[in-house]
Amino acid sequence: MGIEWKHIEQPRFDQIVEALVHRVYADRGDVKVVNGRGGDGGIDIKVTLPDRARILQLKCYNDGFPGSYKGRRASITKSFKDALVHDPDEWILVVPCTLSPSEDAFVRGLAKGAERPRVAVWDRAWLDDKLAAHADLRDHFLREDLREAAKDYGAELAFLAGGSDDVAVRMEALGQRIDRLDPHWSLDVAYRNGIVEQTLRPKHPRAQQVSPISFTFHGDLQDADPGLTAAVQRVVGFGAAEELVLPPSAVQRLSVEGPEWLRFSSENAQVRMTPVFPAPGQGATAELSFLDAAGAIQSVYEGIVRALGEGSAGQSVHVDFTGSRVAIYHPREGAGTTAECGIDLAGLSCGDALQALDFYERIMAGSAFRLRLGGLDVATGTFPAAGFDADDREAFKRLRMTVEDLDVVQRHCRFYFPVPGEVRIDERAFLRIGRLLVDGLCVASPFLTTFSVELNGQDSPFLRDLVASDGVRHRATVDYAVQFAGRELPIGPVTVFHPRVQVENPELVLQALEAGRAEGHRLTLRPAANEEYRLYFPRPDDTTDLNTLTPTALGIPGPRPCRPDSPDSPLGT
To answer: Which of 65, 171, 288, 523 suits a disulfide with 72, CB 3.0-4.6 Å?
Structure first.
């Protein structure tokens, strides 16, 4: 059954087309529906895709637009001309009919002799085809046609003609029937994306003791992903509070034993285990102390318990600390305690981020610890050493350096904001340069390989000597700011210098001076041997001899130096 296009009216036609266009294009571009048919400036719907713009004109001509119907072709022509003002790549006429050869030729002829826009027609066949691909939309609009029929047969509730109110009535009635099945247990039923989900719910805290229910599944994890095997060990073995989904390929047989109405057996079923909420122990205060070799406390960190768990292999505890999340798995016997620790510094202050890094480093180093919950000792031991390799240690060192650099620069500028989630390479280099300048060190900037000045037109012996020289000392003062995370962190007046710079294209400068056309000419200075300019942040009354300063290496991976002709020098010109 399809839409009765022959009897459709303009408002309903507009609703169907607009819904269909959103479904087809909304995930690929921008769909804009213009209000006001007839006064729409030639646009009913505009679809903007990355590579083109389409304008749709909706005409509810059920029986077409033959030449004998006065006004229809004129209306289409006017809409097309109005749309040309918006310079679309494609203009589309949407109609609920099948075009005759004459009508099709008329539409195609609208853009005759022009390269763009391309003209197309979406007719009844196109609409039916797209609605068939989106059956829920088709059924939704067909449902409106069936509503009156349902009333005629007295089946409004079965048809859900009352919309969400009828849905609620039917679901409530079903829920009441399910609740009467058992005095201790009930099922919460949900329908999501074509799948019926049944969630077992106890009616009172002692339901499991009074009316036990057991789940047994036989699985095969031999060829399973290692991540799934580890998740089974955490959830089943230690009662970790995380969702576990076993695909049908890993579940050979599932059996549910309990009340008669609940008994169930299936092969190759999907098993989904979700943690209860709130989790056991959730919200309790945890205190993790790191100990030295003699058992003395070195540092203490407070956190909040996320969950306590127990499984077939042992116990688990998950605790959230500032910027860190720790999971400890303690077996009843056999292998030793294991732990997992993750950090997320985004959104923390620099102080909190440095604290989180200290905490993480102690755990990964295999430190001895004592864990207390609610003031009571619950675990002591030694974290398993993470076995950092050289790359891991270097990455951690750079991460700490980034946060330390940001902390120093923020305090210098008195500009405080949270640690960003991502840092670009160039931003990292800017930040490092700022930190070294604040520390009173000399830095060679990879961003500054030239220095430009604009001549005012006046000639002088000094300028002539500078242009003709094989290399002279150059020094200037600029207001330097660190560009970081979309912000400018002002360092202050910084000295830019180099012991030997040369003028680029000196013959052109001399020609401009000789001809009296030097005003506005840009003179570019470049350090000898393709080096970079050096930066130094002098303090008040600083008498440091710049010639004695040696640039300090950034010590981080950085961007390539700017090209000689790059207009993007961070210091300006």
So the answer is: 65
Q: What is the pLDDT of residue 162?
A: 61
pTM across the whole model = 0.58
Enumerate residue ranges in the chain where pLDDT < 70: 1, 35-40, 143-163, 180, 183, 204-206, 209-210, 335, 386-388, 557-573
Contact 382, 367 (CB under 8 A): yes
pLDDT given for residue 153 in this prediction: 44
Amino acid at residue number 484: F
- CA–CA gap between residue 220 and residue 56 (Å, rounded): 55
* Positions of E strands within 408-548: 443-444, 451-454, 472-484, 487-503, 522-527, 534-536
Distance CA 383, CA 194 (A): 46
* Distances, alpha carbon 32 to alpha carbons 43, 44, 141, 268, in Å: 9, 9, 21, 46
Say how many C-beta atoms besides its own lie within 10 A of residue 468's C-beta: 11
Quick check: 181 and 261 in contact, CB under 8 A? yes
CA 95/CA 60 separation, integer angstroms: 6
At 566 the pLDDT is: 35
Alpha-carbon distance of 16 to 134, in angstroms, equals 12
Chain centroid offset of residue 231 CA: 25
**C-alpha 401 chain-centroid distance:** 25
Give the per-residue pLDDT at 324.
Answer: 92
How far the first Cα of the chain sits from its last, in Å, is: 72
Burial 477-509 (b: 16+ CB within 10 A, else e): ebebbbbbbeeebebeebbbbbbebbbbeeeeb
Q: Is 115 left (phi over 0), alpha (psi -120 to 50) or beta?
A: alpha
Q: Which two tokens stand for residue 100?
A: 């005759």
For 346-479, where are the alpha helices, taking DSSP H only? 350-364, 390-413, 425-438, 461-468
- Beta-carbon count within 10 A of 94 CB: 23
Can you tell me the distance from the alpha carbon of 328 to that of 309, in angstroms, rounded to the nearest whole number? 10
Look at residue 536 in the predicted model and tell me its pLDDT. Answer: 96
Tokens representing 537?
Answer: 């942040």
Tens of pLDDT, residue by residue over 75-103, are 999 999 999 989 899 999 999 999 999 99
Q: Contact, 528 vs 501, CB < 8 A?
A: yes
SS3 478: strand
CB 552 within 8 A of CB 477: no
Distance CA 134, CA 277 (A): 37
